[in-house]
Design a protein that fits this description.
This is FAD-binding oxidoreductase. Keywords: FAD, Flavoprotein. Pfam families: FAD_binding_4. This protein has about 450 residues and is of the alpha+beta class. The protein has a domain of about 210 residues: 3-Layer(aba) Sandwich (Vanillyl-alcohol Oxidase, Chain A, domain 3). About 30% of the residues lie in helices and about 20% in strands. The protein contains 14 helices and 20 strands. The chain has an eight-stranded antiparallel β-sheet with strand order 15-11-13-12-18-19-17-20, sandwiched between helices. A five-stranded antiparallel β-sheet has the order 4-5-9-7-8. Strands 1-3-2 form a three-stranded parallel β-sheet. The protein starts with 16 loop residues before the first strand and ends with a helix.
């Protein structure tokens, strides 16, 4: 069971002990004020160590997977925390509803989507996932169950959204879905030859479309540097109202002994991808699976990065700094000889999150992923962190497996407030190596000043 509770990037070791949700809930309700360290675990789509614990126990939440209620008039669905986003889509689609925010995979749990306050291709229209959470049922280590809403237990509500599982176990939650005419998407692709062209088009694309995202050819250099495709979409007025539950069609059945996604492969892939997607520039209908979750069609695709796993780096850069900073980040990766298989650029809007810690904020977000080549890759990631922080930006914690405590503090100034709201029995490896280290340093400085 431990092997199943890994991080998606596979660069961190699994936690040593795992229990079921039922076992953990029973223990918390019977043993008041537990001092044992625990952490809820969703479906393992976080890339780093926010879903891992050092000297403690992971709580596998996937057995809490029932949809409890659905109001077909309002679109409010209530489900247990282990329900997958794919299950919510399948349940609500026949009634004309769809999640207002979806990340790049539908195989995340409801509790995980709340704990990470995930975002999608429509932040400019809908904000983060947490903006649509109406109610959270939270079990804390004192055995008490708290109902948290924007008006009740507001502190816990705010800390739980984006709180990375540190406030307690989410038992269930209510989410207000978005009414859509169909699941199908009318998609349009516009090639651009430089990042300057992208920045000129991005705001208009957001204004005119529900969804917008750019793919970047990260390896392109010289006059081709920054080229890519701006992909936008809206729900079709007529089309499918049943979820595609046929299952994934491809698989990486075993772990290759080396990284398949090497530079020659990526160069060829990027050229082919740009050519294929750039052939049809007219608006056309596509299924929601291919538009939102293209990699969900390949089981265990993360194995392609090799036995050492992968790092993903996601940053957000303020609008005023993006035109200089994002090209510098792409150049840093090229100069380091590192190729990113998936390089995505999106524009965040100004919709405020209800979460105390929230990664999305006004600006542009760049996502890169790299095979783990040890010290070389870590040095590049540190350089990308430094560029991000110098520009006034932030690094995404739930995509992270190695950022420094200082980078986290610069990215999330409200970390002390989160630490104050953290349930003392809940602690992840990420929080221990960042916020706890910062807190210990603060205490040391305070004692030295006495």
């Amino acid at each position: 069971m431990t092997a199943a509770c890994t991080s998606f990037g596979r660069v961190t070791r699994p936690s040593p002990r795992v229990v079921t949700a039922a076992e953990a809930i029973a223990a918390l309700r019977s043993e008041k004020d537990s001092t044992d360290i625990i952490l809820p675990y969703g479906n393992g789509r976080s890339y780093g160590d926010t879903c891992q614990v050092e000297d403690g126990t992971l709580v596998d939440m996937r057995s809490l997977n029932r949809i409890l209620d659905f109001d077909a008039a309002t679109g409010v669905i209530t489900a247990e925390a282990g329900v997958l986003l794919s299950d919510i889509i399948a349940h609500a689609a026949p009634h004309g509803f769809f999640p207002p925010v979806v990340p790049g995979t539908q195989f995340v749990t409801l509790g995980g989507a709340i704990a990470n306050n995930v975002h999608g291709k429509n932040h400019h229209r809908r904000g983060t996932f947490g903006c649509h959470v109406e109610r959270i049922e939270l079990l804390t280590s004192d055995g008490e169950t708290h109902l948290c809403t924007p008006a009740t237990n507001t502190g816990l509500y705010s800390a739980t959204i984006g709180g990375m599982g540190l406030t307690g176990i989410i038992l269930s939650a209510s989410l207000r879905l978005m009414r859509v005419p169909s699941l199908d998407i009318i998609e349009k692709t516009v090639p651009f030859d430089s990042l300057a062209q992208y920045f000129e088009q991005a705001e208009t694309a957001d204004r005119e479309n529900e969804y917008a995202v750019a793919w970047i050819d990260q390896l392109a250099a010289g006059r081709r540097a920054g080229r890519g495709l701006l992909i936008s979409g809206n729900h079709a007025k007529q089309g499918a109202r049943q979820a595609d539950t046929a299952g994934r069609r491809l698989s990486v059945p075993f772990q290759p002994p080396l990284n398949v996604l090497n530079r020659p492969f990526l160069t060829a892939f990027n050229a082919a991808y740009r050519w294929r997607r750039g052939r049809d520039l007219s608006a056309h209908r596509t299924g929601y699976q291919g538009f939102f979750f293209p990699l969900d069609g390949v089981t265990n695709w993360n194995r392609l990065y090799g036995p050492k796993g992968l790092f993903q780096h996601q940053s957000v850069i303020p609008f005023e700094a993006a035109a200089e900073t994002i090209p510098a980040m792409l150049e840093a990766a090229r100069m380091a000889g590192q190729g990113s298989f998936l390089t995505v650029l999106k524009r965040f809007g100004a919709i405020a999150s209800p979460g105390l810690l929230s990664f999305p904020r006004p600006g542009y977000t760049l996502t890169l992923d790299f095979p783990n080549r040890g010290a070389r890759t870590l040095a590049l990631l540190g350089e990308l962190d430094a560029i991000t922080v110098a520009a006034g930006g932030a690094v995404n914690p739930y995509k992270d497996a190695r950022m420094s405590a200082e980078t986290f503090a610069a990215s999330f100034p409200a970390w002390r407030q989160m630490e104050a709201m953290r349930d003392p029995a809940f602690l992840s490896r990420f929080w221990a190596r960042t916020a706890m280290r910062l807190g210990n340093r603060d205490q040391g400085l305070a004692r030295a000043a006495e």
